[in-house]
Amino acid sequence: MARFKELESRLEGTEHQLRLVQRISRFMAREVNLADALHGVVGLVVEFMQCDSCLLYLLQDNELVLCASNNPQPDTIGTVRLRLGEGLTGWVARERRLLSISREAYLDPRFKFFTDLPEDTYDAFLSAPVIARNCITGVINVQHREPHFHTGDEMELLTTVGEQVGSLVALSLVDTAILQTSAVLDQVMALVRRH
Predict the structure, then answer these.
(1) Which residue segments constitute the domains of the chain, with CATH numbers given?
(2) pTM of the predicted model, to two decimals?
């Protein structure tokens, strides 16, 4: 009976994660401006991962710029910036690696304090690179006010969300008029014929 309950719980968790991935993929399929899509992703991450904060940074001129937050302070969006390697977020971007700190993230020697971000006092920190076509395009952070042990499923989910956000960024650079022509198929078929 205990084994059945465990399997039932794991299945429920997997279905929960699948719903998040499905809802984020809808931003990729619909014509939504990137700022709205990023804000929507942040809201979904907070809802599905039951965290207190989600911050999303995008790379611009070798700096990570805060682009979306579930608790936006009006003067932080677009103005909070980190160099690659600076702070926990910059470290994740430079190393292109997931980072999980379960308690007292603000005591980590890599931590950078911002007086404008209330999240700087939060205990738990989970961060994943945002990647598109194997290029770093940003970082997504999840934070909890209280200590929180990040499960393997949570880490994998945030990694997947980072990849989806990277795809959103890449898609935002595509001219939708091109997608409506047969030229896309011609390009794909030309590649297939070469192999």
Answers:
(1) 2-194 (3.30.450.40)
(2) 0.85
What would you measure as the largest C-alpha separation in the chain, in angstroms? Answer: 57
Q: Which token pair is 51? A: 């965290």
d(CA 154, CA 113): 25
| Dihedral sign of CA atoms 147, 153, 156, 161 in order | negative
Among residues 75, 190, 69, 187, which one has the least CA distance to residue 139? 69
Residue among 35, 94, 37 at smallest CA distance from 63: 94
Q: pLDDT exceeding 70 applies to what percent of the chain?
A: 85
Which candidate, 74, 70, 25, places its Cα nearest to that of 49?
70
Which residues are bridge partners to 69 per DSSP?
A: 55
- 129-173 pLDDT tens trace: 999 999 999 999 999 999 999 999 999 999 999 999 999 998 888
